[in-house]
Target: Rap1a immunity protein domain-containing protein
Amino acid sequence: MRSAMRPLLLCALLAAGSAQAMSIRELRTLEANEKDGRAYAGYYLVGVVEGLREAADTVQRSGQKPPFCINGRRLEPSMARSLYQGELTRHADQYEADMPVQLVLSAALQNSYRCSP
Model:
């Protein structure tokens, strides 16, 4: 059973690796031009935060230091947009429109949920 799952897992990883991240410009365009664009963008932001959180948890489970630590503090899906917008506002000079949204949210989580030494 386990060996039968390896090809499936490999295919899933390859498919995920070929997916393109949405840029800041693309997210803004989605919000502005689509009927439900703001809602779709919100769903995307929540998905990015959840993916980053899962990645950090995986790193921590493997015994390495994660990029950010929740440590029982509140991090809810409804906070994704405010984390994103807050990071863009505080560090507007560091981000260009073609940079991925994931980069902004990763920095926001690292700044908001620092790991204690």
Summary: The helical segments are 2-18, 24-33, 37-61, 80-90, 101-112. Residues 22-112 form one domain.
